[in-house]
Write a structure and sequence with these properties.
Length: about 375
């Protein structure tokens, strides 16, 4: 098994490969956690596969660099050349993100699905206004959706876009997206008088490792994945876009189709998250000008953000109408900035319910993966 020295060498190579050292997460307090994850990966993939995983992780770093540069260039062109309001760009990203949530637990590797499908999505979500906040907000999102499942490229099928290995190997590399709604600080007691929190979206590479497959006599099929996600974080007030740092999020996910009935799917995931100092500053920093009797000055730092446990269930109401329900809890004990006056709750909760209504689909079918 690779030792700590080998993992440390790999970490140094990963950081050195980053553009201007950005990928170092302003590395205070995060090196040990990343090393532990690298060692964990080496254990589960066996000694003879460590070299392959190391190479793939380097690809993840390079892909993150290229993705960040690409996003920055697109934003620059949109704002300076095309003069297009970024509201429409963010709407597309939000739809892709929410549609990915609805579709993530539906298909397994051997399921047969239409090559393309289109329809409408409706979801209602209640979530904390920011990590460790004691206040939450509710958002209703109606939107169209589109999925394309090509032989080598998939769009909107549980992720933004991903390449499909022809031989169905034990890993694949794709892009992941996450999003969260903003918050009005005047309505948040802890942040009163501070700047509002804008709509956030995250974009970056994802390395998916298939750990195991299961078949049950009475409860369908299941799969266990380890998804290694590294994303650049951006925020917007719909008049401009600001870069807010990076997150590293390993996601251990179990999915089972046919859990209660043939058309019922279950998904359970556990996702610890580490973030750069810039993102922690956005949530927890208190500058001198925002100090009050109840809110002390605080300098945020990089490191552990929290761990989310998510359970979701989906089922077919009809052949073309699918309902999903999800609930999660985020545990922030041990967070790098739990002493911040803006850090209120050690544990928060989120719920979501919605539907995906398929209106059109192709006659041709393709495997779910």
């Amino acid at each position: 098994m690779p030792n700590l020295r080998q993992a440390r060498i790999l970490l140094i190579e990963l950081c050195s490969a980053s553009r201007d050292g950005v990928y170092r997460f302003e590395i205070k307090g995060i090196e040990r956690n990343l090393l532990e994850n690298l060692l964990f990966i080496s254990v589960i993939t066996k000694q003879n596969q460590f070299t392959a995983v190391s190479s793939l992780l380097r690809q993840v770093v390079l892909t993150l660099q290229r993705t960040t540069i690409f996003v920055e260039n697109v934003i620059l062109k949109i704002r300076k050349i095309m003069k297009v309001n970024v509201r429409y760009l963010l709407l597309v990203l939000m739809v892709l993100s929410l549609e990915a949530i609805a579709q993530e637990e539906i298909t397994l590797e051997d399921d047969m699905r239409p090559v393309w499908e289109a329809g409408t999505f409706l979801g209602v979500f209640n979530a904390p206004e920011y990590p460790a906040s004691n206040q939450s907000n509710t958002n209703v999102v109606p939107a169209p959706y589109f999925i394309y499942r090509g032989k080598t490229l998939r769009i909107g099928d549980g992720s933004i876009a991903r390449a499909v290995a022809v031989d169905k190997s034990w890993y694949e590399l794709d892009l992941s997206l996450a999003a969260s709604f903003g918050a009005n600080s005047e309505d948040n007691e802890a942040r009163a008088g501070m700047p509002d929190l804008d709509f956030n979206f995250e974009l970056g590479p994802q390395l998916r490792l298939r750990l195991s497959k299961f078949e049950f006599d009475d409860h369908g099929k299941g799969e266990l994945f380890l998804n290694l996600q590294t994303r650049a974080v951006f925020s917007t007030d719909f008049s401009g876009i600001d870069h807010r740092g990076y997150v590293f999020q390993p996601d251990l996910r179990y999915r089972q189709r046919g859990w209660l009935s043939e058309k019922t799917a279950l998904s359970i995931s556990l996702s610890p998250t580490w973030a750069s100092e810039k993102l922690h500053d956005y949530f927890y920093q208190v500058d001198q000008r925002f100090v009050t009797e109840q809110r002390n000055e605080f300098d945020a730092k990089a490191g552990y953000l929290g761990t989310r446990l998510l359970v979701s269930v989906s089922f077919n109401a009809t052949d073309d109408l699918r309902i999903f329900l999800g609930a999660s809890t985020s545990i922030h004990n041990g967070s790098a900035n739990e002493d911040s006056p803006l850090f209120i709750e050690n544990r928060t909760y989120s719920i979501g319910v919605g539907m995906v209504w398929r209106l059109w689909e192709s006659e041709e079918k393709v495997a779910g993966r």
